Amino acid sequence: MTFPAKGFAALNATSPLVPFEFERRALEPTDVKIEILYSGICHSDIHQARSEWGPALYPMVPGHEIIGRVSAVGTNVTKFKIGDIAGVGCLVDSCRSCASCGEGLENYCEKGMIGTYNCADPKRGGLNQGGYSDIIVVEERFVVKVPENLDIKGAAPLLCAGITMFSPLRHWKAAPGMTVGIVGLGGLGHMGVKLAHAMGCKVVMVTTSPEKGADAVKLGADAVVVSKDQSAMAAAAGTMDLIINTIPVTHDVNPYINLLKRDATMVVVGAINPVEAVNTGAMIMGRKRIAGSVIGGLPETQEMLDFCGQHGIVSEVEVIGVNQINEAYERTIKSDVRYRFVIDMSTL
Ligand SMILES: [Zn+2]
Ligand SMILES: [Zn+2]
Q: From residue 206, how far is each of 90, 175, 217, 338 by CA, in Å?
């Protein structure tokens, strides 16, 4: 028996999201059914709803920052019981047989990860639908446990924004004694400040806006460099062991390369589009690297949530009702949110 579900969907690339009824699949033996409580709004929801990342699949219920309560479990489920608080992020399946999947890096599945929405379900047919809805059915391997002490509204964005920042900080071994630059203070950047601070790093916020710099200090940054201030950028040259660059649009990365120490890496997590021409001279002269990173695998996503539970870290959120989704999209595009919208799904 499938489950009737309701949500908010994009029906095409140009119309506002509207109420939408659909079916969730019947519970399979390793499936978990979740009553969704909160769903974050990620900028990539907007890109996909508007078909800005290649042809999108409609109707589309966006949402990949999902927190809810387990309301049913399949006969072979071992990790969850009814009543548990659970999370679902950007992917709900992968091939499970490639080298990446074997290492728990399902986000780098060589056959392509199966997205929570805007993605066909290769096993059962039909389209996967995301978190702007009342229920979801996901296999337990792709569901994570949410520490009970975390405020669940603020925990929702950890499933995308949180892991997007945590994974590169871990991979490039952020640790006490290191200076970590976070470029851009939005949904991603503010999580980077909190996480790098909790990992014991010296955190430097690099932002165009002195006001955002002041905010970053409140969130845990130790210093601020205003990127429009040439002398401040010059003074910070060669000081950073690691930079996580969250700028979501095409931009000139060269000023940030100059901030790196010898052998240091800048990880680009925001701009999926090409950046402006890179001055490889600046990289050659310091054996510097530019790298990329996308979310994290399921084991690391669980590790991130456990870390956030230990350190009491959640996202700064503005909670909205479902009728404000379209308005929230416009405000997200203008960066008019501190720092993430989260939809209260009880308003559906
Ligand atoms: Zn996202
Ligand atoms: Zn795979």
A: 27, 19, 11, 17
Q: Is the pLDDT of residue 273 over 90?
A: no
Domain check: are 55 and 155 in the same one? yes
Is the pLDDT assigned to residue 323 strictly greater than 90?
yes
User: Who contacts 324 (Cβ-Cβ below 8 Å, separation ≥6)?
Assistant: none
Separation between Cα atoms, residue 85 and residue 68, nearest integer Å: 6
* Domain contains 309: no
Residues 154 and 179 in one domain: no
pLDDT, residue 275, reads 85
For residues 169-192, average pLDDT: 97
User: Is residue 299 one of the residues assigned to a domain?
Assistant: no
Q: What is the tally of structural domains in the chain?
A: 2
Residue 238: pLDDT band by 50, 70, 90 thresholds? Answer: very high
101 and 28 inside one domain:
yes
Cα-to-centroid distance, 323 and ligand 1 (Å): 21
Q: What is the distance in A from the centroid of ligand 1 to the CA of 23?
A: 23
Ligand 1 center to residue 294 CA distance, Å?
10
* d(CA 187, ligand 2 centre) in Å: 28
Report how far ligand 2's centroid is from the alpha carbon of 29 (Å): 21
Does residue 301 sit within a domain?
Answer: no
Examine the domain organization and report whether 339 and 244 are in the same domain.
Answer: no
* 228 Cα–ligand 2 center, Å: 42
From the CA of 340, the nearest ligand is 1
Residue 181 to residues 114, 278, 306: CA-CA distances in angstroms? 32, 19, 24
Q: How far is the CA of 106 from the centre of ligand 2 (A)?
A: 6
Residue 109 has a pLDDT of 98
Going from the Cα of 87 to the center of ligand 1, the distance in angstroms, rounded, reads 14
Domain span at 224: 161-292
Distance 161 CA to ligand 1 centre (A): 6
Amino acid at residue number 107: N
**Could you read off the pLDDT of 49-90 as tens digits, one per residue?**
999 989 999 999 999 999 999 999 999 999 999 999 999 999
272 has pLDDT over 90: no
**Which tokens in the block code for residue 218?**
């409140």
Q: Give residue 163 CA to ligand 1 midpoint distance, Å.
A: 10
